[in-house]
Amino acid sequence: MTDLPTPSTRRPVPGQLTFAAPRRGKPPQHLADLDEAGRKAAVEALGHKGFRAKQLSTHYFERFVSDPAEMTDLPAAGRAELVDAMLPRLLTPVRSLEADDGRTIKQVWRLFDGALVESVLMRYPGRVTMCISSQAGCGMNCPFCATGQEGLTRNLTTAEIVEQVVAGARMLRAGALAGGDDESRETPLRVSNVVFMGMGEALANYRQAVNAIHRLIDPAPAGLGMSARHLTMSTVGLVPAIDKLAAEGIPVTLALSLHAPDDELRNELVPINTRWTVDEALDAAYRYYETTGQRVSIEYALIRDINDHAWRADLLGEKLRARGAGWVHVNPIPLNPTPGSIWTSSTPAAQQEFVRRLEAAGIPTTIRDTRGKEIDGACGQLAAVEV
Ligand code: SAH
Question: How far apart (Å, rounded) are the C-alpha atoms in residues 7 and 368?
Answer without folding.
Answer: 33
